[in-house]
Amino acid sequence: MAHVDVIMPQMGESIAEGTVSRWLKKVGDPVKRDEPILEISTDKVDAEIPSPASGVLKEIKVGEGKTVAIQTVVAVIDTDGASTGTQPAPKAPPAPATSPTPPRAPAAPAPPVASGTTASRAAAAPSPASRPAPAAPAASAAPAAPPGPETAEDRLRRRSTPLVRKIAAEHQVDITQLPGSGYAGRVTKKDILDFIDRGGPATAPGAPPAVSGVITHPTSEAWPGDRVEPMSRIRKLTAEHMVLSRRVSAHVTSYYEVDFSQIARLRERRKKEYQERGAKLTYLAVITRVIADNLRRHPVLNSSVSGETIIYRGQINIGIAVALDWGLIVPVLRNVDELSLLGIARQMADLAERARTKRLNPEEVQKGTFTITNPGGFGSYIGAPIINQPQVAILGVGAIEKRPKVITLEDGQDVIAIRTLGMLSLSYDHRIVDGADADRFMADVKRGLETYPEEGV
């Protein structure tokens, strides 16, 4: 009987494990080559995984909600009788689900409420010292444990990769005592190697203790009639990232009203031209262009804090927050200061579309140096967003709409006019960004938007 293994792919150089979010096929279903058969989640991105061959899904080895190392076999496809371009098999037709095992069909896909739970991940994870090679399916095939309290092993899994845990075990390092520089406080390979090279604690004697990336959420009692469901993986990572950011950075927010009337006129004149060139001329694209121009003039807004040093980023990579039905993701536009407005508009549309269809690459959500979020798209007047670590600032864009405004004419007379107005908010890390720095930056952004030249469109 010919069969092909479906393995957990490596979704990026730094990714060492993935979580099976959802099976799109069940045991016995026919599948075609390159047809999506499951969804996975990593620390960086959600993605659909295509079938490596045509045939029948014979066995599911890793249930929904389980986290396994890359190269782990997660399913088996029976290719006998399938049109795969290989030698046809003269055996029984592939249509019926011929798996010899009784209704193993859903492959113990724990009830929906267990999807992505801590307990499921903990059940799939052996201890760091005894963890088998990545391809060992035995551990991943273990039945999921019933939901229970978070274990120390689960916290380790969430804060590190198998490689990092292996290095930590070899050098007898307690990962929970290390400050992680990765997403949601995860300890990276660089963190553990730097710690070992220093031969001592990550912080200098007398320095305040490092902020841990392990977030414990308080519990609440469910009342009769309530619906209780676990957070999805992306929701848990977002929650940890936001709470960690509030603990790490001294948040301050400044608010500015901007008159977008000039840009509104330019958009009206050039909208059709942009559509013919395959892009939409949006306010957000122009804002991104002006932000990029001013980050070069105000480098502290394009920096990161590393211990007691400041890293001034050479690249200007702007993340644009995209709201999805299942959470929030921030695709990153690279080297924005080198792009034209048309290039920014095209890339923004492309990244947003692929984020919604789960086709982003892990590299496309990494190495941002500044973030823009646009709650105004839903009608919000303005908000005070939380900084996207390890960045030091984030811009919030409120609703842009026609409102009355007092303006002064050339003869000095004040009149009430209808203008296209919108609010911008800048949340910044007061550890290194002073209020004067933030306000000078925002004043330049406001001036750049209100006097945006037509040749820049």
Notes on the protein architecture:
The structure is a single chain. The chain has about 450 residues and is α+β, with helices and mostly antiparallel strands. It has 2 domains: about 5-140, RNA polymerase II/Efflux pump adaptor protein, barrel-sandwich hybrid domain (OB fold (Dihydrolipoamide Acetyltransferase, E2P)), CATH 2.40.50.100; about 255-455, Chloramphenicol Acetyltransferase (2-Layer Sandwich). It is built from 10 helices and 19 strands. Strands 9, 12, 15, 16, 17, 18 and 19 form a 7-stranded mixed sheet that branches. Strands 1-8-6-3 form a 4-stranded antiparallel sheet, with no helix packed on it. Strands 5-4-2-7 form a 4-stranded antiparallel sheet. The model is unreliable at about 85-150 and about 200-215 (pLDDT under 50).
Q: What's the gist of this structure?
A:
The chain is of the alpha+beta class. Helices cover 25% and strands 22% of the residues. The protein has helices spanning 118-123, 137-140, 152-159, 162-170, 189-198, 233-248, 261-276, 283-297, 341-356, 435-450, and strands spanning 3-7, 17-23, 30-31, 36-41, 46-50, 55-60, 67-69, 73-78, 251-259, 303-306, 309-312, 318-320, 322-324, 327-329, 332-333, 370-373, 393-397, 401-408, 414-429.
